[in-house]
Amino acid sequence: MKHVNLQSLDTLCCIARLGTFQAAASHLNATQPTISGRIRDLENAVGVALFQRQGRRMVLTIQGRELVRKVEPLLRSLDDALVSLDNPAAASGIVRIGAGEIVALSWLPTLVGQLKTLMPKVTYEIEVDLTVNMRHRLENGQIDIAIVAAPIALNQIDSISLGAVPMCWTIAPALKATVAERKLAPGELLAAFPVWSLHRPSAIFPMTTSALREFGVEADSIDTSDNMLSIVKMIVNGCGIALLPRVLVQEHLARGELELLCPKLPEPELEFVVAWNTEQAQSTIKHIVKMAVAISTFSGMAGATQA
């Protein structure tokens, strides 16, 4: 057998993980012809075809799948040997992190800042989206780490709790004053105003509907937005009420721009986790997970491993 290039083996495993030559090229910061050339050289070295065309897609052959199965653990061990836990400054490459909006608007900038200090040669690609989308991208290998609302119950995905975010019903003072003289009960207050939430695929939407139904309030006409910050601004401007994360509204509450709708309303908690693919257990990923747990400002359950 001819000499096998480690870069070609890494490229093979990257294609297997991400599904396409194009996705691997993007992840490895290379052109698609370069990726194809590495695979061609590897096939010449091992003497067998590693991919075969299936319709418009290139899929691994039996020999290709077997080579990936044997090589991936070796590459992870090599990565840990070259970039030890005691030398994170030597780490390099691109890490793709997906985060929910609550994380992005609170402590994610602090995390990225400290990661850049710890691993200055690593390039970070940050995506902010709904939890359901981040879970899908993590499972498909399109991101390396997801920091999202729990739970994550996916095959080959590990996660650690980052704590929980208290949620509170908020309203603009001027809007609340319109019913102040009526002395409404909590359920009547919830029914008295338009309700806003992130839209249905979000973790907050079912939490909002559940809270409404707990007080006998119909949850069929909730106004929605795909942007948490826009909802906060609409509530500040008197457009209605919303069950919002305290971490995002505490300054508005302190300045008197928002008030609690009713102190008697329960404040449910939304748990968050940091999750990663078990096949992506390189030391760089371990550093990021460890720092996310340490940096998280969410309370309660940080550090508990999820099944």
Polypeptide structure, described:
It contains 13 helices and eleven strands. The chain has helices at 6-18, 21-27, 32-46, 62-82, 101-104, 108-118, 131-139, 173-177, 186-192, 204-214, 228-236, 246-255, 283-295, and strands at 51-54, 57-60, 93-99, 122-128, 145-149, 157-171, 195-198, 223-225, 241-245, 259-260, 269-277. The longest helix is centred in the first third of the chain and has 21 residues, at 62-82. It starts with 5 loop residues before the first helix and ends in a 12-residue tail after the last helix.
Which features does this protein show?
single chain, 307 residues, alpha/beta, 9-stranded mixed β-sheet, two-stranded antiparallel sheet, 13 helices
Summarize the biggest pleated sheet: 9 strands, mixed
Count of runs of 4 or more consecutive helical residues? 13
Output the structural class. Answer: alpha/beta
Question: Over the alpha carbons, how many angstroms does the gyration radius reach?
Answer: 24 Å
Share in β-strands: 15-25%
- Mean pLDDT value: 88
The coarse overall form would be elongated
Taking pLDDT < 50 over at least 5 consecutive residues as the criterion, the unreliable ranges are: 301-307
Number of strands: 11
Helix and strand sequence: HHHEEHEHHEHEEHHEHEHEHEEH
Level of helix content?
40-55%
Amino- and carboxy-terminal Cα gap? 42 Å
Short description:
This protein has 307 residues and is of the alpha/beta class. It has helices at 6-18, 21-27, 32-46, 62-82, 101-104, 108-118, 131-139, 173-177, 186-192, 204-214, 228-236, 246-255, 283-295, and strands at 51-54, 57-60, 93-99, 122-128, 145-149, 157-171, 195-198, 223-225, 241-245, 259-260, 269-277.
